Amino acid sequence: MQRIVLIFGFILSCVLHLSATYYQITHDFHYSRFDLEWNAETSTWQGILRVFTDDLEKALSQKQSEPVLWRLGDKNEHLQSDASIDAYATANWLLTDSAGHALEWTFLGKEVDYDITFIYLESEVSTAEWACFANSGGFFELFDDQVNEFTLKNNGAPLRIWLTSEDPDQSIL
Predict the structure, then answer these.
(1) Structural domain includes residue 47
(2) For residue 162, which of 145, 149, 144 has the smallest C-alpha distance?
(3) Fewer CB within a 10 Å sphere, N or C end of the chain?
(4) Helix, coil or strand: residue 60
(5) How far apart, in whole angstroms, are the C-alpha atoms of residue 134 and residue 164?
(6) 122-147 tens-digit pLDDT
(7) Taking the model in full, what pTM does it have?
(8) Cβ–Cβ < 8 Å for 161, 47
């Protein structure tokens, strides 16, 4: 009887290991979405960047010489979180306006909703009200299958652009 229990336990642990491996492979999803809208009153692009919190923490840790517990959205959040998010987001999600001017972003803040972090950005004032070029390198250093979507709205139907590590730059016009 004990032998049957051991065999059953071994088979059960193999099945659990295989199902955990299958779940990780089939549900491993690396994606960000940057929703941008032109504000004619301020002549700026205003954006909400949505990223997975664990991916963001992993990316922020890449630049650190020692391990950091970011604890984004937690009451014990690391004091340098906002500054690090600002530097990472503004360097890795880029937009060039229709006058050919690469826009600088201002980090307005963030909200963490457990597994999703919302990063609020606003461009500097632009004389051109349409964008002509999008670039993103966000999370490409971590994941080969990362996709960064840009959705741009300017008084019409939104335009969606998908950027990957193989194609991190795309013309909009």
Answers:
(1) yes
(2) 149
(3) N
(4) helix
(5) 12
(6) 999 988 778 889 999 999 999 999 99
(7) 0.82
(8) no
